Amino acid sequence: MEYKKNNYTKQRNSKSKIEKRTQYESSYKKTGYSKGKKVVKKNETATDGSIRLNRFLANAGICSRRQADDYIVSGVVTINGKVITELGTKVFPGDEVKFNNESIRQEKKVYILLNKPKDYITTASDEKGRKTVLELIRGACRERVMPVGRLDRNTTGIILLTNDGDLTSKLTHPRSNKKKIYHVFLDKNIKKDDMLALKNGVELEDGFIKADEINYTDPVDKSQVGVEVHSGQNRLVRRMFEYLEYKVIRLDRVYFAGLTKKGLPRGQWRFLTEKEINILKMGAYE
Questions:
Q1: How deeply is 285 buried, as exposed, middle or buried, from its count of CB atoms within 10 A (0-12, 13-18, 19+)?
Q2: How much is the pTM?
Q3: Which amino acids are annotated catalytic?
Q4: Which domains are seen in the chain, by residue range?
């Protein structure tokens, strides 16, 4: 079996002084500043107390800001009784905002860490009547929280639930590079050569994937490994091993963006500490 390594070629092109100047000036625009004058970033609350509608919806725990844009365009959001479909619309203090004819109020932010058991899906509801993770935190808060990302129905481990739309967008964005560690139980012992292959990377139908780290978790049982990844590709870990003709018997996420399941039994939940919340918001996790 051959493994396709990811080869990158770096090319350096010389730039004229004019090109460098253009690049220099554009960098000011990207960071929200211009020479001698500060420009308010578009996601900041203005001095008049207004806030963009998509951020208002995200802060209320309705959805992420990207999803909010879709809802706005579809015409299910109103401000003071008027249907709003224009992106960039602002909400001012005292405005009445409705989503699907239901009034929206700004909620306090809630952050819950759950150690998900098997046979629960990470959605708010399921048309097939399957159990969802929201059933496990019933009564934890009045606010409407949603799972951040997903775990397969048969995958166990930690998952974050929150009504903080900004944080959800940040953690689920492809560029977030959040670290995740899984404890993997295989149907047979894995060879060191195959572990090296996964670390070097393999080419699947949807692109190149790799394990950032992979090690045995048991000195005797070579069918158990710990895998660290940063990619958010769907069913990444399972597909990596399937490619090498290993079957994943059990998969448990033990680490997510600086959060661990230490001291949290399966099926139980807890609120995040202020320190953990600040680390997530600052992106100060590995």
A1: middle
A2: 0.69
A3: 152
A4: 51-103 (3.10.290.10), 111-174+261-282 (3.30.70.580), 179-256 (3.30.2350.10)
